[in-house]
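Input sequence (433 aa), recorded before submission:
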Amino acid sequence: MTSHNPVVAWLELEGRLLQARRPVEVAFIAVNEALALAHYRQSVLWSGESGVVALSGAALVEPGSPYVLWLDRVFRHLAGGEAAATPRAITAADLPPVMAEQWDEWLPAFALIVPMGAEAILFAREEPWVEADLFLLCRLADLARLTRLALRPRSPWSDRLKSLRTRKARIVAALVVLIGLFPVTGSVLAPADLVPAHPEIVRSPMDGVVDRILVRPNQRVEAGESLFDLDTTLLAGRLSVARQQQGTAETEYRQSAQAMVFDPKAKAQAALLAGKAEEKAAESKWLQSQLDRIQVKAPKAGLAVFDDASDWTGKPVSVGERVMIVADEIDTEVEAWVAVADIGEVTPGAPLTLFLNTQPLTPVRAVVRSVGYEASARPDATLAHRVRAVLAEGHDKPRLGMKGTARIDGDQVPLVWWLFRRPLVTLRQTLGI
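Predicted structure, token format:
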């Protein structure tokens, strides 16, 4: 710029600023070409977000240089307080002693700082500032601020937010918020099937080996009907030996009883032999009672529920080990397996609706009776919590073994929470927040 007319100089500088294509170009023009408006030796443009943006006489700013670091501290100190929003002349006396010590090293004696919103521009020279200089440089700072804001890259979201200012967009936004807050019943889905409500567990009466399974899986049996028996080989052998020992002990006792008529010493021996004979008789009786228990009978009428007879034939079992159950075919309840992530939505007393695979259009109503506090491993190697539910009264009870999907209802929650709960949980688990 070569004109000394302030008006012409201002118009030329204004044209340069308006023709800039990037915010950094505006900053460079503002700190270097403002000499056409007022004389100064140094000029700095500073931003609260990125620190020193431009220096007069420098093509690039070195962020780690001592000069730039000192300038950043000075601007941040001057940005506080009530006077930070007004243009003002400053000297070293306006700074803390630690900063003022370096003023003479970096800047001339008189400086002028002009705020630009979140930014500020500083001009420094050797002589005091006059009112005319202050007026022109303030207008320059306003134009530079508006130009830098206009050239700043915009986020796609800014345009969308502006569209919300229209009346139609506000109505749509309000409807979206209302729909998102609309209360819905929270629910979870879980695989379920019908299991015996009051089963009779059939256990092994003693240690042994299963010899035969006398019924088929899921066969209907009557009370007292034989279900399976254990191998009798060992027990029958022990009973045979015990009976022989009993016979021998009884023979010895009779001989001793006859001898004590003539021999007084045999009387004491006869008492010992009598006790031994009674002991062997008791052992034989106990073994016979065990042998009578070898064949296990049904405790009540119902279905004999177990997997496969071949899995049990020849298998060693211990006393009290479960072999099968006997259950009423229609005395059933719902057993559901709820995923670990959904168990917080399930509470005892919650309504449960079972949609059977064979009757999807006829739901079965039930009420949650119990919720397992600890997750268990399922056959498909997943962890889930066991939930038991009692079928509603007056409902035709489906037969044992039918499978389907259970919907367990919980508390009422906003629709937006119901839609985004799972994505939020997945995001939290993925990011660890």
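Checked by second reader. The chain has four domains: 6-153, 199-230+294-327, 233-281, 329-431.
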